[in-house]
Amino acid sequence: MGQAKWQKSSFSGNGPGNDCVEVAGLLNVVMIRESDEPSRSIAASPEAFAVLIRRLKTGESRG
């Protein structure tokens, strides 16, 4: 597997206390991690990640 290039939102500032969620595309997987805990990440299919983003944008919870 190749090296992931992590990206964070442009809405996140730099400096202490500006932790955020970071994402990286790797092959056919979207990796997701918390910037304050970079050694732990989860993987999702691009389709599942798209569903997550849609639900977050609409405020929809699991149900």
Automatic annotation (TrEMBL):
<dbReference type="InterPro" id="IPR007278">
    <property type="entry name" value="DUF397"/>
</dbReference>
<dbReference type="Pfam" id="PF04149">
    <property type="entry name" value="DUF397"/>
</dbReference>
<feature type="domain" description="DUF397">
    <location>
        <begin position="4"/>
        <end position="57"/>
    </location>
</feature>
<protein>
    <submittedName>
        <fullName>DUF397 domain-containing protein</fullName>
    </submittedName>
</protein>
